[in-house]
Amino acid sequence: MIGFIGCGNMANAMINGMLKNNIKSDDIFVYDTDKSKLEIMSKNGINICKSSHDVFKKSKYIFLAIKPNVYSDVLNDVKGVIEDGSVIISMAAGFKIDSIKQIIGSKKVVRIMPNTPALVGEGFTAVCFDNLIDEKEKNTVMSLLKSFSCVVETKENYINAYSAISGSGPAFAFIFIEAMADAAVLLGIPREEAYKAAQQTLLGSSKLAMLSQKHPGELKDMVCSPGGTTIEGVRTLEEKGFRSAVIECIVNTYKKNLDINSIR
Ligand SMILES: NC(=O)C1=CN([C@@H]2O[C@H](COP(=O)(O)OP(=O)(O)OC[C@H]3O[C@@H](n4cnc5c(N)ncnc54)[C@H](O)[C@@H]3O)[C@@H](O)[C@H]2O)C=CC1
Ligand SMILES: O=C(O)[C@@H]1CCC=N1
């Protein structure tokens, strides 16, 4: 049985993926303090629980899909009902497995860093397992995560970097899409057409990079004719510090994860 504490963006994304991959709504138990979120879940046939305690009692795999600022309160509240066999799956930015265990004791904890494209089955999730998790539990968690994302098992040390790159990354990609569309509108293209062009261009470029397995620089060179138009745009991006802006953005996002770690 699978449980969710919190039914917001990430829980919705994950549950949608699971339902599309043959996990039965009857096997999912959820709780949220916001009743309107529970009503939406109920309409999809998901079991609604009266409390977090109820979710823990009914499920083996429990996703903590709540914001980091309520993690400590929720963990303190449920620590008495967590069984030794329960597997707690945490996704909060900047919250270490050790910090969780300091509250709930020696229980099985998995740390994941998912992202919102999971909503359309195209998520990316970095995962690390603590050493109390056995092989069968690990396989079950991996297959749950694979129902909504591409999954990479990693060291916990890297989770903060993944948080910056793939966790926060969609926000940065959406700004790029918005900026490209704004430019298109400035050039007279209707707004709807502008978004379509920008979105498909990013989607197609990602797919080409993945499927061709060519270096991104080589793919960029394939678009730039000598003395042509694209190389003029590339020159402008370099002049405006585009690469450096992206690198600084990811590094500062990573540093913020470390800051949040240090205050917990
Ligand atoms: N949104 C994103 O792109 C990503 C989010 N995360 C992490 O996922 C977690 C969830 O984020 P979102 O789904 O975006 O948040 P959200 O705000 O959409 O959902 C959180 C839900 O928790 C509920 N809630 C608040 N207090 C509660 C309590 N005491 N008991 C039960 N439910 C409670 C809220 O009503 C809300 O429905 C966070 O820890 C975040 O850091 C990780 C990677 C990406
Ligand atoms: O900003 C946040 O708290 C989360 C972590 C990764 C993406 N969003």
Automatic annotation (TrEMBL):
Protein's recorded name: Pyrroline-5-carboxylate reductase
InterPro entries: 6-PGluconate_DH-like_C_sf, NAD(P)-bd_dom_sf, P5C_Rdtase_cat_N, P5CR-like_CS, P5CR_dimer, Pyrroline-COOH_reductase
Taxonomy, superkingdom: Bacteria
Pathways per UniProt: Amino-acid biosynthesis; L-proline biosynthesis; L-proline from L-glutamate 5-semialdehyde: step 1/1
Species the sequence originates in: Caloramator quimbayensis
Lineage: Bacteria, Bacillati, Bacillota, Clostridia, Eubacteriales
GO term, biological process aspect, one: L-proline biosynthetic process
N-terminal signal peptide: none
GO MF assignments: pyrroline-5-carboxylate reductase activity
Family the UniProt entry places it in: Belongs to the pyrroline-5-carboxylate reductase family.
SUPFAM superfamilies in the cross-refs: 6-phosphogluconate dehydrogenase C-terminal domain-like, NAD(P)-binding Rossmann-fold domains
Gene3D superfamilies found in the cross-reference section: NAD(P)-binding Rossmann-like Domain, ProC C-terminal domain-like
EC id: 1.5.1.2
Residues annotated as domain Pyrroline-5-carboxylate reductase dimerisation: 156-257
Function: Catalyzes the reduction of 1-pyrroline-5-carboxylate (PCA) to L-proline.
Primary subcellular site in the record, as a coarse category: cytoplasm
